[in-house]
Recover the amino acids of this structure.
């Protein structure tokens, strides 16, 4: 079967956020990189696909903590006990160190960008900033301690009749002809209530509201659960705070309007909506925020990227 010329159309909070961050970055990520995994793909597609796989130390750290949260829930679910904090810290450090080692070999990453890690800091700056590594080193034991002692994990372990429902499962919803992606970190039920747990390793962000509404919408649609029986616990591990939320049914109209507006904006940049074919690269504007340019994985192939400065 020949490669499809354009990717499937879909929507997600992360796609919306990237679109709002920089239209050109959005183009590289969702369109230029398409089919770039093929060895005979055009050079631009292969380059964009490779850069799409790039990450940074904070993202690797956050992903590692999420992975350990998943393993902690699995451990209790299957064996009735949690891993020791020291073991979790050891595993997170291993994942961080592996990403660093991978990033030292650019040629190997270029040949296998999906199988290896490349840190933005290593690729564009040639090394990890000492202040960044010290910050993560300091945060790691704090986050692990707060993960294991979190209200949600303690409730799941000690409250009567708690049952695991979902764990790190990618789900979809349909809004008209658009597939919407939703992924819950962790969900369990107890005494007729469905409890969604969302782990956060950074600061509070108002953009989380859309994500929480999508979670409730998915549970309502997929499991037929009334909104009043759905609880959302956002665990901010850095501060140790657990924020409790419930979504009202009227908010779903606001959510649908928000998503539809976002979809309309994105489709304005398509030359063929049915095929999900984008307009020219130059039709996708470059952000005027220099900080975003400096953090962008695609800066080496973006004509509008701001030049690197000594402060970086």
């Amino acid at each position: 079967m020949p490669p499809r010329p354009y990717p499937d159309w879909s929507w997600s909070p992360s796609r919306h956020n990237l679109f709002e961050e920089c239209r050109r970055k959005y183009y590289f990520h969702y369109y230029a990189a398409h089919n770039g995994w093929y060895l005979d793909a055009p050079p631009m597609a292969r380059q964009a696909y490779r850069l799409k796989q790039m990450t940074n130390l904070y993202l690797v750290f956050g992903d590692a903590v999420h992975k350990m949260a998943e393993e902690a829930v699995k451990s209790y679910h299957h064996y009735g006990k949690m891993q020791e904090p020291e073991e979790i810290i050891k595993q997170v450090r291993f994942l961080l160190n592996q990403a660093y080692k991978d990033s030292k070999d650019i040629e190997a990453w270029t040949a296998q960008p999906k199988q290896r890690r490349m840190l933005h800091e290593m690729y564009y700056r040639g090394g990890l900033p000492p202040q960044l590594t010290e910050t993560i080193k300091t945060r790691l034991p704090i986050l692990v301690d707060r993960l294991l002692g979190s209200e949600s994990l303690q409730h799941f372990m000690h409250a009567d009749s708690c049952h695991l429902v979902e764990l790190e499962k990618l789900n979809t919803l349909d809004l008209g002809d658009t597939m919407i992606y939703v992924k819950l970190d962790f969900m369990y039920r107890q005494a007729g209530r469905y409890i969604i747990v969302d782990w956060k390793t950074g600061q509070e962000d108002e953009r989380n509201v859309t994500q929480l509404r999508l979670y409730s919408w998915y549970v309502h649609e997929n499991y037929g659960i009334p909104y009043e029986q759905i609880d959302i616990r956002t665990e901010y591990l850095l501060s140790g705070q657990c924020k409790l939320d419930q979504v009202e049914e009227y908010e779903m109209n606001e959510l649908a309007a928000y998503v539809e507006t976002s979809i309309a904006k994105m489709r304005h940049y398509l030359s063929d909506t049915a095929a999900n074919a984008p307009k020219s690269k130059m039709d996708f504007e470059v952000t005027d925020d220099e900080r975003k340019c400096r953090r962008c994985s695609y800066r080496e192939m973006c004509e509008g990227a701001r030049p690197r400065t000594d402060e970086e």
